[in-house]
Amino acid sequence: MENENAKVKKTSKGLIIGIIAAILVVAVIAVVVVLSMSSGDVGKVGDLGITKQEYLVLSKFNMNSFLQNAQSKDSTKFDWNQKYQGSTAKEQIKKATLDSIQEIKIQLIKAKEAGVKLEKADLDNIEKAIDQRIQNAGGSRAEAEKQLKNDYGVSLADYKEVYKELVLSQKYMESERNKVKITDDEIKKQYDAHKADYDKVTVTHILVATQDLQTGAAFTEGKKKEAKEKADNLLKQIQQGADMQALAEKNSDDKGQDGKVNNKGVYTFSKGKMVPQFEDWAFANHKAGDTGVVETSYGYHVMKFEKREETKFDDVKDEIKSTILNTRFNDEFITKKLDSWKKEFPLKKDENALAKIDKTLYK
């Protein structure tokens, strides 16, 4: 938020009358904005209202993504008032949700202008997706309704309407993305200039967590010190010849939903797949057998470098093309056009309505 400049107080009668008049004008404008929204809407972008159902579905989606990144499965045990980089999780999710809704509404406005609409095949696919939800609920529509109400706070019909808007907005985005052209020469030039970046490395690691991987809550300094000591001790055992995969199975906190250590701690990956500190160590020109301890937001990783392999051009050609295309599309469309349209179609919010919904979301 930008800070307003401080204003010097004055007490003349004329100025007081002017301030009162300005307040009345602002109040009238606020009433007009609220009345222009349809009953039940929580905001507006251009002429398109934002429904409570849209806000609920996208908020829940962002909450689930946040929990997944924090490796927490239970939203009821998560403290949404925890601060991350200066703002609470709740504030970040609300902003991300409203930003997403504004962009979706703009895409819908532009889709109409471009003549992009849902065809029969699109509607059929939407029906199939809804039917699949019912099948996943044991074939019971009533059970599917119950699950959606529990997961997103909306009915099946409401969910379908939100889904239709998302499909149309994505269809419009895809039509714009298809306008971007990439040549084979551009792809080869990118590969030659960054060949080493497409290499794959294999490492074995043991995670000693420094946070509760279910809730995201950080350990105390005392528990963090114990974790570091454990990591250092495991590293010493490995350097003395202990079987690292066996140690990983017994000690690593990097576990799947089945409670087992993921792949005995062995990972093969290219750049851009892991958290920065983990990746930086793995690609730091190590020799096979090199070991070390790396700290990330998850904890201490006891690392052992296994091997590095060069990736051939043909194996990554499609990946490089997709990367160039996405970068160009983001630069030309997302950054330039969409940011400009956000000024043309600002987001208008009903803060009272949003606050009431948030009370049910972040209990």
Automatic annotation (TrEMBL):
Residues 198-307 form the PpiC domain. Keywords: Coiled coil, Isomerase, Membrane, Rotamase, Transmembrane, Transmembrane helix. It holds the Pfam family Rotamase. The chain crosses the membrane at residues 15-37. Gene3D superfamilies: 3.10.50.40. Residues 217-244 form a coiled coil. The keyword Repeat does not apply. It comes from the Bacteria. InterPro entries: PPIase_dom_sf, PPIase_PpiC, PrsA_foldase, Trigger_fact/SurA_dom_sf. One of its GO terms (molecular function) is peptidyl-prolyl cis-trans isomerase activity. The keyword Transmembrane helix applies. This is PpiC-type peptidyl-prolyl cis-trans isomerase. The lineage of its organism: Bacteria, Bacillati, Bacillota, Clostridia, Eubacteriales.
